[in-house]
Amino acid sequence: MNEKVIDLKFDKLDTNLAGNRLGNDVFAEQIEPYLEYNKVNIAVFPETIEDIASSFIEGMYKKLGEKYGKSKAIQIMLLDAKNKEAKEKISESIETFGV
Q1: How many helices (DSSP H) and strands (DSSP E) are in the chain?
Q2: What is the pLDDT of residue 49?
Q3: Inter-axis angle of helices 84-97 and 54-68, to 10 degrees?
Q4: Alpha-carbon distance 49 to 79, whole Å?
Q5: Which pLDDT does position 95 carry in this prediction?
Q6: How far apart are CA 51 and CA 67, in angstroms?
Q7: Rounded to whole angstroms, how far apart are CA atoms 80 and 11?
Q8: Cβ–Cβ contacts within 10 Å for residue 85, how many?
Q9: Cα–Cα distance for residue pair 34/19, rounded to 1 Å
Q10: Distance of alpha carbon 73 from its chain centroid, rounded?
Q11: 14: how many CB neighbours lie within 10 A of its CB?
């Protein structure tokens, strides 16, 4: 299956992302319009994002999880980060809390 990379954009002053509502908003504005359901969509956080709370990740997956179920949601959209700490936080949150 092909991949589609979606580079996320944030204000340069934003270094930490938290909150279910913010995650939901970012998904709706920066990801959902560009999703291709026949590909693996990879949403990539920029280097400036250093910390991502599990509540933010839950918000990002909320709509996909409700519509397709949790395991299918992760098949449709993966999260990645250019910052090593943020990347670890994403993996840790998904492993611990799911989506």
Answers
A1: 4, 5
A2: 97
A3: 50
A4: 13
A5: 87
A6: 27
A7: 18
A8: 12
A9: 22
A10: 11
A11: 13
Alpha-carbon torsion (25, 31, 37, 43), positive or negative: negative
Per-residue pLDDT of the chain (99 residues; tens, 9 = 90+): 699 999 999 998 999 999 999 999 999 999 999 999 999 999 999 999 999 999 999 999 999 999 999 889 999 999 999 999 999 999 999 988 776
From residue 88, how far is each of 38, 66, 69 by CA, in Å?
27, 25, 24
Residue with tokens 């250019």: 82
CB atoms within 10 A of CB 34: 11
- Determine how β-strand 77-81 pairs with β-strand 40-45: parallel
